[in-house]
Amino acid sequence: AYDMAELGYNYRMPDVLCALGMAQLPRLNGWVAARQKIARFYDRAFARLPQVAPLYTHPDRTNAYHFYVVRLASSLDRDRVFASLRAEGIGANVHYAPVYWHSYYQARGYRKGLCPVAERFSQQILTLPMFPAMTEADVNRVIDAITRATA
User: What's the predicted TM-score (pTM) here?
Assistant: First the structure.
């Protein structure tokens, strides 16, 4: 079910997208601060849920939280939790499968089982909604849904 059939190319960003990016740079610090605030809400909530563990950030590092990823307990079925969240309208996602699971690498002899720890981990992680405009109510809705889905 992985569909990368060929290796990609080095696509370059068009000038108009560069201009858009430059115009948004002054907002970057505010967006990162908003994401970090949301992450703190998630962190506090999941500290009470032993079956849901946020990925670790070293104390001497800063995380911009482009994604907020949790690792579910091995006793949980990640796909069932994912479906439950989606059924409640929660935009959870799954990132990323081991690269050699894509058809391009499968066709060249790479097989599942090559990196069993990475494969097991990839089946336990789930990406939760994370965007700067999330309200506290939005975050609480996600927390409530994942609490129900992992009970």
Answer: 0.85
In one-letter notation, the amino acid at residue 5 is A
Both tokens assigned to 148: 């129900």
What lies within 8 Å, CB to CB, of 66 at 6+ separation is 35, 130
Distance (Å, whole) CA 128 – CA 148: 15
pLDDT in tens, 28-81: 999 999 999 999 999 999 999 999 999 999 999 999 999 999 999 999 999 999
The residue among 2, 3, 1, 6 whose CA lies nearest residue 108 is: 6
Task: Give the E-state strand segments of the chain in sequence order.
Answer: 52-54, 68-72, 125-128
Give the whole-angstrom CA distance, residue 121 versus residue 119: 5
128/35 Cα distance (integer angstroms): 12
